[in-house]
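Q: I have two molecules that I believe assemble together. Could you output C-alpha cells for the complex as a whole instead of separate predictions?
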Amino acid sequence: MTTTTATQLPADWRDFFALTKPRVMSLVVFTGLCGMIAAPGHIHPVLGFTAILCIAMGAGGAAALNQWWEADLDAGMKRTAGRPLPQGRMERTSARDFGVGLSAASVLLMGLAIGWLAGAILAVSIFYYSVVYTIWLKPRTPQNIVIGGGAGAFPPLIGWVAVTGEITLMPVLLFAIIFFWTPPHFWALALFVKSDYAKVGIPMMPVVAGEASTRKQILAYSVLLLPLSASPWFIGGTGVVYGIAALALSALFLALSVPVAFRRRAGDDDAMRPEKRLFAYSVFYLFALFAALVADRLLSVQGII
Amino acid sequence: MSMTPEEQAEFTRRRKGRNLVVAGLLLAFVVLFFFITIVRIGGAQ
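A: Yes, here they are, computed for all two components at once.
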C-alpha cells in the first residue's frame, strides 16, 4: 500500500457508488425494463420495480467485482486511471466485499420476491461477467468482446423471465440480438479510439487480428443481425410494427457497416468518419429496437394492431 | 498514528456521509419489503 494517508480515511460513499458503473447500469435498467414490458402477462408494479432493482444491483455488484480484479490494469489506462481503486481512494478488499454483498443481496431478493428461476439467471449473469469474462477470458482471447457481449445480453432475458417464470424462445432471441450487436458496436469504437489495452496486455481484436480483419468481422455480424433482429416477428412473437422497425433499423446498420468494412485508414490523421458514424448509430439502434419492441407490445395490448 | 485536526474533520465528515447513506438505504428497503410482503400475501395479481 503506497497511499497510507488516503486509505486510513473511510472511503467516501460516492466512491462506492462509482464502483457500480452507474452509466452502464442505466442501459441495463432500460433493456431489462423493455424485456419486462414486452413479456406476455402481468406483473404487479411493486414486484416489477423490485425485479428491475435486483437487475441493477446485480449489475452494480458485478461491476464492483470487475474493478476489484482489474485495479492494476485500470491504473495503467488513461480512461480508467481515475477510478476509485487506482486512485487509492478505498481499500481493494472493500470493493471486493461490496461487490460480493451487492451480488448476493440482489440474487436473494430476486429469488424470494420474484422467483428462483429469475434469481438463478441473475446469479449466472453475475458469475459470467465477473468470473468467466473478467477473470478468465478477457485477458486471454481477442474474442473477449464477443464473450463480454453475453453479459450485456442478460438483462432483457431476466426482465422477461421475472414476468413469465419460464424461458421461452422469445427472451432467448432478445439475448441473441444484444449478443450479436455488441461486437460490431465495440469494434467500431475500438477502430477510432486509441486505447491502451495493448499496453496492459488485454488482447483486443484490432491489435491481435489487425484492422482489416476487424472490419470484415464487423460486416459479418451486421449481416447476421438483419435476419436475427427480425426473428421475433418471424416466429410470431411480435407484431408487424416491431418487424418493420427491426428490418429498417438493421438494414441501415448494415448499410453503415459496408463502408467501414471496405475501407482502409488513410494515414494517422484519418478522421475515421464512417467508423464514428457506425458507432453513434449502433447506440441509437439498440435503444430504437427495444423501444419498437415495447411499442409493438403496447399497441397489441390496446388492440390497435 | 494520530490525525491532524483537518484529517479528523474529514474523517468525521466521511463517516457521517456514509452513515446517512446506509440509514437511507435501510429505510428504503424496509418500505420496499413491507410492500413486497403485502403484495405477495394478498396474492394481488
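A: One point stands out. Residues 1-6 of chain A have pLDDT under 50 and may be disordered.
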